[in-house]
């Protein structure tokens, strides 16, 4: 792990102080309006090309995810399409799918700003044939659900090699994607970069590119860049100019035209720790500078920017979305 550069500790202290000030910069509404009304009002005001939101629950019906996103001031959102505890799930209810699409239309959510997230049970790179077979079948099911919901893309963790080799793992991941593409129409499979923990694949941009190279229909594959995962894998986005440098590297290795979404997460772990430990925006090792650069980076326009942070009292998703939008207006002074 690289030693801390001179002045880094001071920079982090300044960033934490700035984050706290930004969190409390807006007073509570004095007109008697509810928190939900306040967030709905704030949702009407956003940076023109930035679509920030969070991963929301589908409890009570899949259309509830839309309502939850509106309530926290989101202009994008992520969701699971079913239970995370079972390989088999009931078929998607047609009436629920219609209600979901109607809610999206009512509140102005474009499918390209909605990012369904795959089950953590899936390991499309598994050397165990039973796990690979179930994962491949689940990927087909997930893409089919996306189609029924009118969604255009689907995000998932590539997989882990376990006791196999990275090359064989990447081959199997691409095999599962190609199979799913044959079985379903249109939906784009979005690979997520990983932290490099254990035998997971996707910690390095070159591994994502290697999978993409093996996918036959390249119009149906993309990447979701997770900030915590990238930092934990050794990509330093924390200093001034860090986001630009990492995007330049991503463009060189993978290609910016494959960037479909970003997961906005600070990191509890230090640079290169390989630990997948998310922290609230501006409260971790990455710091507020990187997120300021992200929300002012033109190359991240018009794609979903999704929070997956733990949240804390007074600084939940709604407050973090509000903070990020405020950074669009408050560019750092020299």
TrEMBL record:
Residues 1-12 have a biased composition (Basic residues). Residues 13-40 have a biased composition (Basic and acidic residues). Its cofactor is Zn(2+). InterPro entries: AP_endonuc_2, AP_endonuc_F2_Zn_BS, Xyl_isomerase-like_sf, Xyl_isomerase-like_TIM-brl. SUPFAM superfamilies: Xylose isomerase-like. GO terms for cellular component: mitochondrion; nucleus. Residues 70-326 form the Xylose isomerase-like TIM barrel domain. GO terms for molecular function: DNA binding; DNA-(apurinic or apyrimidinic site) endonuclease activity; phosphoric diester hydrolase activity; zinc ion binding. GO terms for biological process: base-excision repair. It comes from the Eukaryota. The keyword DNA damage applies. SMART domains: AP2Ec. The keyword Hydrolase applies. Keywords: DNA damage, DNA repair, Hydrolase, Metal-binding, Zinc. Residues 1-44 are annotated as: Disordered. Pfam families: AP_endonuc_2. Belongs to the AP endonuclease 2 family. This is Xylose isomerase-like TIM barrel domain-containing protein. It comes from Onychostoma macrolepis.
């Amino acid at each position: 792990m690289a030693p801390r550069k001179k002045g880094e500790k001071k920079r982090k202290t300044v960033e934490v102080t700035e984050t706290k000030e930004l969190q409390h910069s807006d007073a509570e509404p004095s007109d008697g309006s509810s928190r939900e009304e306040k967030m709905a009002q704030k949702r009407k005001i956003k940076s023109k090309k930035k679509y920030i939101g969070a991963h929301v629950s589908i409890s009570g019906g899949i259309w509830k995810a839309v309502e939850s996103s509106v309530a926290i001031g989101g202009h994008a959102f992520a969701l699971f399409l079913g239970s995370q505890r079972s390989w088999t799930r009931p078929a998607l209810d047609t009436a629920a799918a219609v209600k979901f699409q109607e809610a999206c239309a009512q509140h102005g959510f474009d499918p390209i700003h909605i990012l369904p997230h795959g089950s953590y049970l899936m390991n499309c790179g598994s050397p165990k044939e039973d796990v690979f077979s179930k994962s491949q079948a689940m990927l087909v099911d997930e893409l089919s659900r996306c189609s029924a919901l009118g969604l255009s893309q689907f995000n998932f963790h590539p997989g882990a090699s376990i006791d196999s080799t990275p090359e064989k793992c990447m081959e199997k991941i691409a095999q599962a994607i190609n199979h799913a593409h044959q079985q379903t129409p249109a939906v784009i499979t979005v690979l997520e970069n990983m932290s490099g923990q254990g035998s997971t694949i996707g910690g390095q941009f070159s591994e994502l590119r290697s999978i993409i190279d093996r996918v036959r229909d390249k119009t149906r594959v993309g990447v979701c860049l997770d900030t915590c995962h990238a930092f934990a894998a050794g990509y330093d986005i924390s200093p001034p100019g860090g986001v630009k440098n990492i995007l330049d590297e991503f463009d060189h290795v993978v290609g910016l035209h494959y960037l479909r979404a970003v997961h906005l997460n600070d990191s509890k772990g230090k640079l290169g720790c390989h630990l997948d430990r998310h922290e609230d925006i501006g409260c971790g090792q990455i710091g507020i500078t990187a997120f300021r650069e992200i929300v002012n980076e033109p190359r991240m326009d018009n794609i979903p920017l999704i929070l997956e942070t733990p949240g804390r009292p007074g600084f939940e998703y709604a407050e973090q979305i509000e903070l990020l939008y405020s950074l669009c207006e408050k560019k750092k002074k020299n």
